Amino acid sequence: MINDWYNWLFAFDDAFCEGELMAHRASALARALPPLLEILDGRRDPDRDDPFGLALKELLGRIVGSATPAQVDRWRITVKEYLFAQIWEAANREADLIPTPEDYVLMRRITGATYTCFALIEAGGGYRLEAEEWHHPDVRALSDLACDLIGWDNDLLSYAKECGKDKARHNLVTVLATHKSLTLQDALHEISQMHNTAIAAFLDRRAALERWAPLPVRKYVRGLEHWVRGHIEFSLGSARYVHAWPDGTQWPKAV
């Protein structure tokens, strides 16, 4: 179920967020969203010629069968946020705009759909967090930090792929190089420093959380850690990214 959701996101990203018909037309993308939103809320059935709507309805049914109502609602909310965030990206492309670092770091958490995946960690593990646990400042901060780490790692690993399309405008490398007048190497160095700072903050916050957290909360945080590490492992072996790297590129192996 969770893997199929990832595949839906990859396909949607390629067709809607990077496709020629929608990616540079915010109004067209906005008009395409209402059917998906209604399917998410169970208010309509998808058209028979709508592969994304059909797959979304099937996935929704499986998630409803595996998760609590509260977990389903959390997932729905994050999916809606992700869909609306694609309009922001399309508007930037339409205006030939590279977002500021402040705007980009904030929106990257949503445009990458990572929160939609975090919302399924509990259901996939067969446990649940209470509402006050899910919304606890430590849990929210760790979720944000994990989301940042995954997004920034993805920007590094996908930079070559994205340079071939759309000037890599929605990539932290380009954002920093443009707005801070950095060389490519200096931008990469700054991202590495941001990454190290985020890891240190994650470890500090995790230590604070472990002083009060019951087992389900600790399992969720462990799921965040698996996501950060698993994303690197996946990306280093994925043809989606490695085929765009220059010949002879060598990445350190994850240990």
Helicity, in percent? over 70%
Q: Per DSSP, what share of the residues sits in E-state strands of 2 or more residues?
A: under 5%
N-to-C series of helices and strands: HHHHHHHHHHHHH
Shape: globular
Number of helices: 13
Which stretches are poorly predicted, pLDDT < 50 over at least 5 residues? none
> How many β-strands, per DSSP?
0
Largest sheet: none
Mean pLDDT: 91
Compute the gyration radius: what is it? 19 Å
Structural class: mainly alpha
Question: End-to-end span in angstroms?
Answer: 28 Å
Describe this structure in words.
With 255 residues, the protein is an all-alpha fold. Helices cover 73% and strands 0% of the residues. The chain contains 13 helices and no strands. It is globular and about 50 Å long. The mean pLDDT is 91.
